[in-house]
């Protein structure tokens, strides 16, 4: 691990007790984030991507149980920390932006209070410095008349503005890692692009690691340095953004990519790809490939046993028993069949 | 990608991923069986009901039988004076206390049940009408509810009893007046929510009359809530009846209402505390078990609204 | 905000007028007032003359406007029993009742809010069950029976507190506790369920993600939101407690408005009863308006919306 590694996670699993048994929300997940790097975690809802982010923040619901071989933020071992030690890092070294800006700010306090509070809590300075820092960051996130905005309440701001406030709030203490969980899903389309650009430029400027969680491959294409595709609580494919987009190796990734229209290639009026079937329930003992009920290339090895990650090159891996060549061939055949 | 055909005949594999979901009635039965509060509460209520219904058979004496030579006999566990002839002792007029308590259950349950039922009918009707019609009708009904809330209920009830007397029928009607508002508030808001549903619109499009829509489509949807409120209001009605009788403005002596028993026992409570403890505890246990049953019904019919 | 409050005020005035009509009718329901005033063995002629003297021969609506007009100038008529002005009788005693209601609400809040918060932070644990148990107990025990038990224990057996009277603070302890216990479960449940909702909300997750210390999350971010419905309930309960003093004041012989109401009902002194009904209704209306104002102050969404 290089000294620039901000976050290192090894074999993270999250189990949640539900009435029907144990739900394996996340299984044996490993990931790394470097300084200034953007890792996109992509997958459909329920695949465990949000749970992963809450696990890293130590904000899991009480019923969820976390296990991991390693969980380190800037070389600090998070697993051995008490909750109060961890709380000192949250908001300071690691910040989080949530999906819905309409409900993520406390409705009864002024925006300014909510921003300054982080700064003061983490002992970065007094009320006056906090106010200056807040005004500075509001300008950074492109808000005109910051002083005025700081004395307003959340309901007086639009969704886009609130999400910028959330971004500014995360940056108050200059964190090493930012986790953004579907930060633009709740915004309208015009605001989405603006907010993403802002997030990207600020991340580079502040040289923070960014984990961006999304279900939208368009967002991944725009933002990611590296991509991790998650399915049913597992990483099914990891690699740099170009590698994954140019040569998707896992059938699920291929399916996902088939679902996006490509300007110039997809004919108007033609049918886009879709992945049939539904995500399996992750309750009880899980065996074999989780994607097998939706996959077109199922064969005996998919049905049982543990299908591990196969490493193709450094930082590039996938979880399927097909070899990269095999899957590439099948993909091209499929691709030909698909208009 | 093909959408319909499943390759390789792996349907069995798909099944393994699904969880069997029990039907709603089956779920309710299961929840009822495992809900301790409901079972305990329900059993105690049934016990009181049985005592009330079979009081004439079970009770050792008549409720009005006096034996002035046997006044204020303590309960049987009093080593010196207790006797099995009067297990719960006798009151100041030598009447068997157990007998009077048993007949008291009749009064409490009857008044509680009918007050809750009448107010349920009145309140729910008002609430459903307001919620269904909206607009001016609803404004008027909100105004009625506001007026009701502003009046000091207990005081008005006391005044009305003093005017109309403490007959059981009068008490039921007066208590109904005290409790209709909560049904109205709840059914009104539930009706507002379901009024916009497609099946209501469909019924309207078919030309179904409003009364039929309210009874046929709206009422079944608010029934669960009405039953839950009714059970809780019945408990309150029982307490209020006892309170009115305790103040001497409810059921009139010598009728054995628990509230009246408490008020008669009050003069002797320093020496004979059982005279207030028996009727007090009777009210307490009946009310607490009705509440437990009501909470149980709520949990069983709508577990998502538990907190 | 101004529009919202004006609307509330309009409703409040409408309700107040209706209540005054109801209170006025209460007096008429009680029977032939003139016969009552003239005395028991008055002849028909005497009754007719009394009716004329008091204006009772006029149409009812004229009498109502007459009464309402007087009420607006602070004249609520005279007691049939003592012939004192009703306003004076009530104002002599209302202090005791207000004190009792305030103590009671204080008792119930000081128990209910911490208990509700604790229960919501640790749902389904021992402390939650205990809180629920206390609430269930408070809801099911009839307050007149509980009052007698307290008297037996603290006044008779332990001799710590006086049984009755209204001279000192000690006189208020048992009544306030009895009355407060009755109101406590509602506050407890509302605090608990409100806190559970709030603690589950996104902005609390944000607050935790900011690394705020748990006490600050709980008491600043969560309780401040959960308190809003409690303020509304406080107005309702305070209004309810004022009415509930009828029982408690008569048991503890506190000489407040509740006791006066009870006595007046017993001796069919309806001018006094109707005035108390009217004044308690008015105070409920004012209290709810007040709670709207306080809520608007506490919740910027209303204040600035």
What are the main properties of this structure?
heterotrimer, A: 339 residues, Rossmann fold, 2 domains, 23% strand, globular, disordered C terminus, B: mainly alpha, MetI-like fold, elongated
Describe the structure.
The complex is a heterotrimer of chains A (339), B (307) and C (305). Chain A is of the alpha/beta class. Chain A has two domains: 5-93 and 173-337, Rossmann fold (3-Layer(aba) Sandwich), CATH 3.40.50.300; 102-172, no CATH class. Chain A is built from eleven helices and 13 strands. Chain A has helices spanning 49-57, 83-89, 111-121, 127-140, 146-150, 159-171, 189-206, 217-223, 241-246, 251-258, 324-337, and strands at residues 5-18, 21-34, 38-42, 64-67, 70-73, 76-77, 94-97, 177-181, 209-214, 226-231, 234-240, 310-313, 316-318. In chain A, strands 7-8-9-3-10-11-13-12 form an eight-stranded mixed β-sheet, with helices on both faces. In chain A, strands 1, 2, 4, 5 and 6 form a five-stranded antiparallel β-sheet that branches. In chain A, helix 3 (111-121) crosses helix 4 and helix 4 crosses helix 6 (159-171). The longest helix of chain A has 18 residues, at 189-206. Chain A is globular, with a radius of gyration of 21 Å. The N and C termini of chain A lie far apart (44 Å). With 307 residues, chain B is mostly helical. Chain B has one domain (24-301): MetI-like (MetI-like fold, Orthogonal Bundle), CATH 1.10.3720. Helices cover 70% and strands 0% of the residues of chain B. Chain B is built from twelve helices and no strands. Chain B has helices spanning 11-16, 24-34, 36-53, 55-58, 97-133, 135-150, 153-164, 168-195, 198-205, 210-246, 258-266, 274-301. The longest helix of chain B is centred in the middle third of the chain and has 37 residues, at 97-133. Chain B is elongated. The relative contact order of chain B is 0.14. Chain C is mainly alpha-helical and 305 residues long. In chain C, helix 5 crosses helix 12 and helix 6 packs across helix 8. The radius of gyration of chain C is 24 Å and the shape is flat. The mean pLDDT of chain C is 87. The chains are: A alpha/beta (339), B mainly alpha (307), C mainly alpha (305). At the A-C interface, helix 2 and helix 3 of A face helix 9 and helix 10 of C.
Radius of gyration of chain A: 21 Å
In the CATH hierarchy, the third-tier topology of the largest domain in chain A is known as Rossmann fold
Which strand-content bin applies to the residues of chain B? under 5%
Q: Strand order across the biggest sheet of chain A?
A: 7-8-9-3-10-11-13-12
Strand content of chain A: 15-25%
Annotated CATH architecture of the largest domain in chain A: 3-Layer(aba) Sandwich
Task: State the share of residues found in helices of chain B, binned by percent.
Answer: 55-70%
Number of domains of chain A: 2
Shape of chain B: elongated
Helical fraction of chain A: 25-40%
Oligomer: heterotrimer
Low-confidence stretches of chain B: 1-19
Distance between the termini of chain A: 44 Å
Number of domains of chain B: 1
Order of helices and strands of chain B: HHHHHHHHHHHH
CATH class of chain B: Mainly Alpha
Total beta strands of chain B: 0
CATH topology (fold) name of chain B: MetI-like fold
């Amino acid at each position: 691990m290089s000294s620039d590694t901000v976050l290192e996670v090894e074999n993270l699993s999250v189990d949640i007790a539900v009435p029907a048994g144990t739900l394996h929300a996340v299984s044996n997940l490993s990931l790394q984030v470097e300084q200034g790097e953007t890792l996109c975690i992509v997958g459909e809802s329920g695949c465990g991507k949000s749970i992963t982010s809450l696990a890293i923040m130590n904000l899991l619901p009480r019923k969820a149980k976390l296990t991991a071989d390693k969980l380190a933020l800037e070389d600090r071992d998070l697993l051995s920390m008490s909750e109060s030690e961890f709380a000192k890092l949250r908001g300071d070294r690691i910040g989080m932006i949530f999906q819905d800006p309409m409900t993520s700010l406390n409705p009864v306090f002024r925006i300014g209070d909510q921003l300054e509070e982080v700064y003061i809590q983490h002992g970065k300075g007094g009320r006056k410095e906090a106010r200056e820092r807040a005004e500075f960051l509001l300008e950074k996130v492109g808000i005109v008349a910051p002083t005025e905005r700081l004395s307003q309440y959340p309901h007086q701001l639009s969704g886009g503005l609130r999400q910028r406030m959330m971004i500014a709030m995360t940056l108050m203490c200059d964190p090493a890692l930012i986790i953004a969980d579907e930060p633009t899903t709740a915004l309208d389309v015009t605001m989405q692009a603006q907010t993403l650009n802002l997030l990207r430029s600020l991340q580079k400027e502040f040289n923070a690691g960014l984990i961006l969680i999304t279900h939208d491959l368009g967002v991944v294409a725009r933002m990611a340095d590296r991509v991790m595709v998650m399915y049913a609580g597992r990483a099914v494919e990891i690699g740099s953004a170009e590698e994954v987009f140019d040569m998707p190796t896992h059938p699920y990734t291929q399916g996902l990519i088939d679902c996006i229209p490509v300007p110039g290639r997809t004919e108007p009026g033609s049918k886009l790809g879709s992945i049939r079937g539904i995500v399996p329930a992750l309750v009880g003992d899980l065996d074999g490939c989780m994607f097998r009920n939706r996959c077109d290339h199922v064969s005996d090895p998919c049905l049982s046993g543990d299908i591990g990650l196969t490493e193709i090159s450094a930082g590039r891996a996938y979880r399927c028993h097909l070899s990269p060549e095999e899957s590439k061939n099948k993909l091209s055949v499929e691709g030909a069949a698909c208009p | 990608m093909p959408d319909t055909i499943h390759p390789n005949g792996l349907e069995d594999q798909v099944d393994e991923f699904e969880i069997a979901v029990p039907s709603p009635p089956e779920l309710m039965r299961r929840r009822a069986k495992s809900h301790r509060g409901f079972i305990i509460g329900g059993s105690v209520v049934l016990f009181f009901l049985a005592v009330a219904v079979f009081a004439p058979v079970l009770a050792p004496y008549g409720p009005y039988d006096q034996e002035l030579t046997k006044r204020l006999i303590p309960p049987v566990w009093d080593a010196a004076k207790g006797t099995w002839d009067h297990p719960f002792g006798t009151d100041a007029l030598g009447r068997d206390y157990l007998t009077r308590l048993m007949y008291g259950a009749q009064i409490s349950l009857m008044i509680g049940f009918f007050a809750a039922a009448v107010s349920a009918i009145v309140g729910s009707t008002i609430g459903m009408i307001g919620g269904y019609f909206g607009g001016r009708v609803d404004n008027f009904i909100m105004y009625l509810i506001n007026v009701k809330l502003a009046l000091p209920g207990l005081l008005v009830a006391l005044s009305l009893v003093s005017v109309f007397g403490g007959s059981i029928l009068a008490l039921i009607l007066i208590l109904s007046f005290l409790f209709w508002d909560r049904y109205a508030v709840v059914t009104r808001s539930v009706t507002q929510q379901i009024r916009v549903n497609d099946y209501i619109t469909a019924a309207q499009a078919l030309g179904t009359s409003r009364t039929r829509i309210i009874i046929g489509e709206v009422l079944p949807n608010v029934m669960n809530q009405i039953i839950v409120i009714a059970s809780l209001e019945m408990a309150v009605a029982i307490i209020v009846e006892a309170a009115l009788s305790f103040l001497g403005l409810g059921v009139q002596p010598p009728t054995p209402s628990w509230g009246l028993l408490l008020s008669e026992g009050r003069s002797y409570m320093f020496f004979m505390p059982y005279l207030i403890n028996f009727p007090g505890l009777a009210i307490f246990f009946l009310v607490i078990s009705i509440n437990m049953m009501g909470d149980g019904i709520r949990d069983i019919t709508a577990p998502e609204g538990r907190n | 905000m101004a529009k919202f409050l004006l609307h509330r005020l309009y409703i409040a005035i409408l309700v107040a007028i209706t209540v005054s009509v109801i209170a006025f009718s209460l007096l008429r329901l009680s029977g032939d007032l003139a016969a009552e005033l003239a005395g028991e063995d008055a002849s028909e002629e005497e009754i007719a003359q009394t009716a004329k003297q008091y204006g009772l021969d006029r149409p009812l609506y004229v009498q109502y406007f007459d009464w309402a007009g007087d009420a607006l100038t602070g004249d609520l008529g005279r007691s049939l029993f003592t012939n004192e002005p009703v306003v004076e009788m009530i104002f002599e005693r209302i202090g005791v009742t207000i004190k009792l209601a305030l103590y009671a609400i204080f008792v119930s809040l000081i128990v209910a809010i911490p208990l509700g918060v604790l229960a919501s932070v640790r749902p389904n644990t021992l402390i939650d069950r205990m809180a629920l148990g206390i609430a269930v107990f408070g809801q099911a025990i009839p307050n007149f029976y509980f009052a007698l038990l307290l008297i037996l224990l603290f006044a008779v057996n332990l001799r710590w507190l006086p049984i009755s009277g209204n001279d000192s603070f000690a006189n208020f302890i048992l009544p306030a506790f009895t009355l407060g216990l009755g109101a406590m479960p509602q506050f407890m449940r509302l605090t608990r369920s409100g806190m559970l909702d709030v603690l589950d909300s996104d902005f609390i997750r944000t607050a935790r993600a900011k690394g705020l210390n748990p006490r600050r999350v709980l008491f600043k971010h969560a309780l401040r939101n959960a308190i809003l419905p409690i303020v509304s309930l406080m107005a309702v309960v305070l209004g309810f407690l004022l009415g509930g003093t009828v029982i408690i004041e008569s048991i503890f012989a506190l000489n407040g408005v509740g006791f006066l109401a009870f006595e007046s009902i017993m001796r069919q002194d309806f001018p006094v009863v109707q005035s108390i009904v009217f004044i308690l209704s008015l105070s409920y209306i004012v209290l709810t308006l007040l709670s709207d104002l306080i809520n608007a102050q506490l919740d910027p969404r209303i204040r600035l919306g």
